[in-house]
Design a protein that fits this description.
Layout (H helix, E strand, L loop, with lengths): L6 H6 L5 E3 L8 H9 L4 E4 L5 H14 L4 E6 L9 H10 L4 E5 L4 H8 L4 E6 L2 H10 L3 E5 L5 E2 L6 H11 L4 E4 L5 H9 L4 E4 L1 H4 L8 H9 L5 E4 L11 E4 L2 H8 L14 E4 L5 E3 L11 E2 L21 H27 L5
Parallel strand pairs: 1-9, 2-3, 3-4, 4-5, 5-6, 6-8, 8-9
Antiparallel strand pairs: 7-11, 10-11, 12-13, 12-14
Helix pairs in contact: 2-3, 2-12, 3-4, 4-5, 6-7, 8-12
Bound molecules: flavin mononucleotide.
Length: about 350
């Protein structure tokens, strides 16, 4: 099948301008490889993984695909224990060629990656941040709008953000937030983006490491079922995030939305990780398959695009489907133009 070529596919050497966004510990070699096999970019999110584990995941992904994949590291030190440079150095040492950075400054990392022949992407939430990233020398920017699931860098919606960012920089722009099908990708391209970055949609794939209950909640959700705020702040304080409405959120809202320190059940342990570590009610933990306990009560990160997410295909099938839908949507737009051009003169 013919690809869709854009400046992003040129920079990243892809067949289609579709990126499986880093979705924390729900990413895994199977997911990234499946997307890469379909000509998109698969991503491993490694922030909360040790450099040793990161190396294993990179090797496993490489063994599974000849396609393109990259890694994502959150730069903000408040989010993690491993310094960004250590993570990036481990990845480069394993031959990783695409590094995406979010929530922080790419300045110190750009040379590190590009000196090894790699490509650097930075997530931004405004045109100013995009300009700064471009000045730092990144190869592409990811404009993440407010609709996005997970931790969110912007209070501007994708629709106004993407054209502002596209006007601000000369490097390729990837649109993120609120995109779940080919209509969204075509719209992003029309807004001036060169590709799309989909997180919530890829949660509902066969390969993503999402707990069954979490995946079901994403499938059931309408576009109105998310909350944006700073409620689940233990572990990474003060950073806004978007999650599905759940019992913890409802209890807090019923209590009048009290501040940190006075929230209901603040000292409660609600679930447990596979290693037996406890997960507190307001902790920024991810509902991976091994989590036990009251999984519904922990943050179920998802964007407004959950409303458009209704099936669980393999990530390869999804990537192919997204490309096909994008073609259909672009053709539809073109046919509107053709029909207007050939219409009767008035
Ligand atoms: C479960 C989940 C985990 C995420 N983890 C990360 C992460 O580790 N690093 C990052 O830069 N963004 C992360 N994000 C944000 C995504 O990369 C992406 O920007 C977002 O999902 C796009 O919006 P969408 O969910 O509407 O597609 C996460 C999003 C979700 C839903």
């Amino acid at each position: 099948m013919a690809g869709i070529e854009t400046p992003l596919t040129d920079v990243l050497d892809l067949d289609v301008p579709v990126v499986q966004a880093p979705i924390g510990s729900a990413t895994c070699p199977e997911l990234a490889a499946s997307v890469a096999d379909a000509g998109g970019l698969g991503m491993l999110a490694v922030t909360w993984r040790s450099p040793e584990r990161t190396r294993e995941l990179v090797r496993e992904t490489r063994r599974s695909t000849d396609g393109r994949f990259g890694v994502n590291v959150v730069v903000d030190d408040d989010a993690k224990s491993v310094p960004t440079a250590d993570h990036v150095a481990a990845c480069l040492d394993e031959g990783v060629e695409v590094v995406s950075l979010s929530f922080g400054d790419a300045d110190d990392i750009v040379d590190l990656v590009q000196d090894e022949g790699g490509v650097v992407l930075q997530s931004v939430g405004s045109a100013d941040a995009a300009r700064e990233a471009a000045e730092a020398g990144v190869d592409a920017v990811v404009a993440q709008g407010w609709e996005a699931g997970g931790h969110v860098q912007s209070e501007v919606a994708t629709m106004p953000l993407v054209p502002k960012v596209a006007d601000a920089v000369d490097v390729p722009v990837v649109a993120a937030g609120g995109i779940a099908d080919g209509r969204g990708i075509a719209a992003a391209l029309a807004l001036g983006a060169d590709g799309a970055w989909l997180g919530t949609r890829f949660l509902a794939t066969e390969e993503a490491r999402a707990h069954d209950l979490y995946r079901e909640r994403v499938l059931d959700a309408d576009e109105t079922d998310t909350y944006f705020g700073t409620l689940f702040d233990e572990g990474w304080p003060g950073v806004p995030h978007r999650v599905l409405r759940n019992s913890t959120l409802e209890r807090w809202q019923d209590a009048g939305e009290p501040p940190r320190g006075e929230r209901p059940g603040e000292d409660e342990v609600v679930a447990e990780t596979a290693d037996g570590d406890s997960i507190a009610r307001y902790e920024d933990s991810l509902a991976v398959p091994e989590v036990t306990g009251d999984v519904e009560a922990i943050p179920l990160y998802a964007g407004q695009s959950a409303g458009l997410t209704e099936s669980v295909p393999s990530a390869e099938t999804l990537t192919e489907r997204l490309a096909e839908e994008t073609r259909t949507a672009l053709n539809r737009t073109r046919s509107l133009l053709d029909a207007s051009d050939s219409g009767p003169e008035t």
